[in-house]
Amino acid sequence: MTSTPVLIPLEEYLNTIYHPDRDYIDGVTQERNMGETPHGRLQGFFTRYVGNRRDQWRVEALPEQRVQITSSRYRIPDVCLISYDAPDELIIRTPPVLCIEVLSREDRMTEIMERVNDYLALGVPTVWIVDPWSQRAYSVDPTGTLRPESETLRVPNTPIQVPVPELFAELTRRTS
After folding, report:
1. How are the residues of the chain apportioned to helix, strand and coil, as percentages rounded to the nearest 5?
2. Confidence (pLDDT) at 176
3. Cβ neighbours of residue 166 under 8 Å, at least 6 residues apart?
4. pLDDT on residue 106
5. I need a labelling partner for 123 at 20 to 30 A (CA). Which of 38, 80, 96, 176 fits?
6. Rounded CA gap, 25 and 40, in Å?
7. CB 129 within 8 A of CB 103
8. Residues 107, 77 contacting (CB under 8 angstroms)
9. pLDDT at 1
10. Model pLDDT, residue 152
């Protein structure tokens, strides 16, 4: 037996605080898979790594920020990079320089690619998908081509790059 999704008015979504926040797809809120420690470590790594280079790269890393895709679609990437030149928006409407999705164990590639296609439709030039469980990283270009990256994740035509081995070393790093 399938249940009919409950449609939520856009204003209600925009004025509701969900814990954790949810995507809004054509009137339906969608829960995101909650990350476990490896997910959180990689999300934190990206935020710190970019934060340490923010002035050089002229971007800001925002974790779990609402991004408006269309008037009826809102996504929440794990991390998005916003250009210093972009307007200061409460909800991101200007295409980010990059959206990053860190996979949880429950994530399925078909669902992730739906998210990626939304980012690309908005005009995001590059999307990274990182799987802490298989320790694989992928980049997706504006054509939707998924490419495995074993050495370096890059945003073309920018100085933004992250060494993949350093990224996955974060999974076993502990601070004292």
Report:
1. 25, 25, 50
2. 44
3. none
4. 87
5. 38
6. 25
7. yes
8. no
9. 59
10. 98
Q: Which two tokens stand for residue 137?
A: 């990283």
Distance CA 173, CA 127 (A): 25
Please return the burial class of 96, using the count of CB atoms within 10 Å of its CB with bins 0-12, 13-18 and 19+: buried
Could you tell me if 123 and 93 are in contact, meaning their C-beta atoms sit under 8 angstroms apart?
A: no
CB atoms under 10 Å from CB of 164, counted, come to 18
Superfamily of segment(s) 34-169: tt1808, chain A (3.90.1570.10)
Mean pLDDT by runs of 10 across the 176 residues of the chain is 78 88 90 82 96 98 96 96 97 98 91 96 97 96 96 97 95 68
The C-alpha atoms of residue 103 and residue 93 are separated, in whole angstroms, by: 24
- What is the domain partition of the chain in residue ranges? 34-169
CA-closest candidate to residue 22, choices 11, 7, 34: 34
Q: 155-158 long-range contacts, Cβ below 8 Å, gap at least 24? A: 155/81, 155/97, 155/98, 155/125, 155/126, 156/125, 156/126, 157/125, 158/57, 158/97
Nearest to 32 by CA among 87, 101, 85: 101
Enter the pTM of the model. Answer: 0.92
Token pair belonging to 144: 């939707």
CA atoms of 172 and 166, how far apart (whole Å): 11
Q: Which of 32, 127, 134, 41 is nearest to 74 (CA)?
A: 32
